[in-house]
Amino acid sequence: MHRSRLVRPLALVALAALLGAAGPADSPVNVTEPAGLYEGPQHGYTPPTLNGATVVDLAALDRLIAADEPVLLDVVLADRKPQGLPPGTPWLPSHRSIPGAVWLPGAGVVPLTAEQEAEFLKRIAALTGGDKAKPIVTFCRPECWGSWNAGKRLVEAGYSRVHWWPLGVEGWQDTHDTTVVKADKAWTAIASEKATPPAQP
Amino acid sequence: MKALILALGLSLSVTGMAHAAGASDTDQERVARWNDLKKEIFAGKTIEPSETMVRIDAPKRAEDAALVPITLAMSDKDKVKGVSLIIDDNPTPYAAHFIFGPAADPGEIKLRVRVNNYTDVHAVTETKDGRFFESKQFVKASGGCSAPMGMSDEEAMKGMGDMRLKFGEATPGKPAEATLMIRHPNFSGMQMNQVSRDYTPARFIQKLDVSYGDTLIFHMDGDISIASNPVINFGFKPEGKGPIKVVASDNQDGRWEKTFEVPSASN
């Protein structure tokens, strides 16, 4: 499914270019950046830019990883156990990501509580060793505002080398290996303890 | 840590080649996952690899992760008692379990499933003499479990439980084939209603019994990994008597049954 999501926007871009159409908000073309964080549903067409951050493609991401040891910040939402699953059904979610990534499930959700927001910044400070110039890459899945929002939060917090990888895990695993990544414990403790669990896909 | 990241950087640059050769860094993790699942599902039974006892045909890259066609082929079919399908990286990996009855021709069974992420898919057959055999196939697809159906829940549930049975061309003396189609959303519980932004609770075909007259063809235990509007293709011994009866039930007390007359073999 995600694959077709990868392909379809390109076809739509081509079509829109042919027609000379300015895309409405429900098309992937010309999605404009919100002034602050995006408060709509997490899944949806995203802008091609993130002011204050660098949008990377796969080649740029490969180079960055090889050269700069960036913090790879995965904000994919955790699978939520379905309601109505018969007791005894094995429920064994597993998350695969870019090797070396730190997974903070739902860290791109809006709004976060004040505690979640503070914990997010605290985790990033720890992961960057307090270096605001340390490169960071945010990602989730294709057409996911979560990674855009996480990048925006970091830009607003004063990080100077924020990168956004819009195609996320799906865009990576097409040609690269993934590895099983467990959710960051410090983050999930605070994220699940407080209200508004990060649950929107 | 620094050395590890450097090592990762190096290995990433050759990943493309390594993958083509089938020797990826993550193979071991996938094997470990499968070993865990085997313990959970088959309680430590010895499972031997065998492509003759069971083979999986699946697209290497699925066009639609919410509708991935899977064929389980069992060439030594007279020995087969049942077959299980496990989609390793799905959050509920145990997709389906079939038990074949005396009226079955268990050479092949087809169904359509949801795949949540690039994953190994395993099939395990159990023979009549109590042995287990496995084979696997890697499938590239992702997002299938949470993919919305693109319509309201009410619309998706319209005509729930309606069934059709399409018979393959009958040839005297040869096993007969049929395709069962059941209208049912098979909600995974991981799909979000696009309007209300609530998750639709899991509602799926949990048990399915198909018999020819009084004789069982197969019983299936299903799961949320089976695609919406289940379609199951199966073989049966044509010499049976009476109509084919299908009884389906879901995990929310839905129960439906229907009988179908078997067309007689022409000449």
UniProtKB/TrEMBL annotation, chain A:
Keywords in alphabetical order: Signal
A Pfam family hit: Rhodanese
Keyword Signal carried by entry: yes
Domain annotation Rhodanese: ranges: 66-181
Signal peptide interval: 1-27
Database matches in InterPro entries: PQQ_CXXCW, Rhodanese-like_dom, Rhodanese-like_dom_sf
Protein name per its UniProtKB record: Rhodanese domain-containing protein
Species per Swiss-Prot/TrEMBL record: Methylobacterium thuringiense
Automatic annotation (TrEMBL), chain B:
Gene3D superfamilies the record matches: Immunoglobulins (2.60.40.10), SoxY domain (2.60.40.2470)
Domain of life: Bacteria
Alphabetical UniProt keywords: Signal
Domain Sulphur oxidation protein SoxZ: 169-260
InterPro entries the record matches: Fuse-rel_SoxYZ (IPR030831), Ig-like_fold (IPR013783), Ig_E-set (IPR014756), SoxY (IPR032711), SoxY_sf (IPR038162), SoxZ_dom (IPR014880)
Tagged with keyword Signal: yes
NCBIfam families: fuse_rel_SoxYZ
Protein name stated in the entry: Quinoprotein dehydrogenase-associated SoxYZ-like carrier
Pfam families per record: SoxY, SoxZ
Lineage: Bacteria, Pseudomonadati, Pseudomonadota, Alphaproteobacteria, Hyphomicrobiales
Limits of the Ig-like SoxY domain: 39-145
Organism name: Methylobacterium thuringiense
Signal peptide: 1-20
